[in-house]
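Quick check before the chapter quiz. The format below is the same one you will see on the exam, so make sure you can read both the input and the output lines.
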Amino acid sequence: MTGWYDGQRPITIAILAMGGEGGGVLADWIVEVAESADYYAQSTSVPGVAQRTGATVYYVELFPRTARGTTGSGRAAPVLSVFPTPGEVDIVIASELMEAARAVQRGFSTPDRTTLIASTHRVYSIDEKMALGDGRVDGTALLDTARGGAKRLIATDFMAVAEQHRSVISAALFGAVAGSGLLPFTRVQCEAPIRAFGKGVEQSLAAFADGFGAAAATVEPASPPRTAQPVELTLIPKPLTAAERKEREEQRRNEIAATDPGELVGPRLRELARTVSDMPPAARSMILHGLVRTAVYQNLGYARLYLRRVATVADIDPERDGAARLTVEAARQVALWMCYQDTIQVALQKIRRQRTDRIRAEAGAEPDQLIHVREYLHPQVGEITDTMPVRLGSMLHRSNAFRRLIGRLTHRGMMVNTSSITGYTALSVTARLRPLRPRSLRYAREQQAIDQWLHTAVATAGLDAELAREILACQGVMKGYGATYEHGADSFAQLMSAAHHLAGRNDAAGRLATLREAALADESGDALSAELVGVVPG
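Here is the expected output.
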């Protein structure tokens, strides 16, 4: 490798990692290996923005002390850079797939020079999580960007490698760097700083070993840069046979029988599920899902109400004996709306045993280890009054004095320790208010809105079934709770007004679909307002 440095160029390495992933430790390990091998090594870092909107960039430059020109030229040591220069980085290490694509976007990874080592798992960005619709970036597109922007790509799920050994991703990525053959150091030299680290040595060495092997197995020869071409795929599901439909329905009934909330155990829910056989065959699976969801959310009576509502749509579905697209959409959207997120539902979700088990698994906690789960809550006046009985909730919602009181108590938010006795009890008591939900202000308002929405869809179906299906799909703009839900409800009202004005037009369904997508584009409502011009009279 000595001849490589005759041109007096350092090895340049950029590490893009998020907080808690050990990017700094990885940089330190590389520096330790280099210095022990008689190299100059310099490491700097530029912090990213918190809350997953940007990763910290750790930058390392290595230069051999024995390279010609480092002595006898008036300078005892080379001058090394403190930040990666676009187009001049030899190795880029990305702890997550989007960070790999960002490295290409920022010019750190280039197809003429860079070897890109990237983990293919995803940690969704704030923009992706905040999107009202499905804001996730296509993982295949990110991988294509990484592949097209690197001379050589080494990509696998290094997070899964680390978790398998109860280690951290930095150890697996370090193994990949060592296994790539890009650094002039032996495997034993690279393992030395891990052994000296003194924490989780065996686990880190196991992750290092698997990362080393993964890199050796994913070596890709140099290839010219390419640009991924978009491919449009139309997936046409294979029609199910009568026997397959029956098998799926039976499987779903078995799942229903395993549902655990008190009243649902036993034959009562199974008996109710059997009535689904009167529904359109193509919609039965979705209806069974909705049946379970509404029954768990409230009770069997609520599930019966769900079935009656879906039946009103199924009775006028022009494709009842075929695809039954109208009924399928109703089965999905009615269940989602009936199971709206109120304070009772949020509390119930936070104390479920399955959630606690998942948190323990993600934290890697041993069975005998204690964990602390802290919830940050910021209840608003509307969320509190919505849980109260109709008359009391309406009165307090209009009370300025009550608003000021709640503002003083909650303006900074509340921290609740779910794993403590007091925190768990508070959430458990809130969740046990479920029997009182039908008397609440929110319940009365939501049920009235659902009935009005369904009436509009059913009345429209006789004239334009596609428009009716889009009216049902518009429920998807109402998500979450608090301010997010209020924004969605406002967009929904505008969409229903637009549907009224679009009725009778040949392009009504397509135009309403465009409006619905615009409503999901931003929380400000600007995109929807722009699309509504010319549809709804100003």
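If your answer matched, good. Strands lie at 11-17, 39-46, 56-64, 91-94, 115-119, 152-156, 374-377, 414-417.
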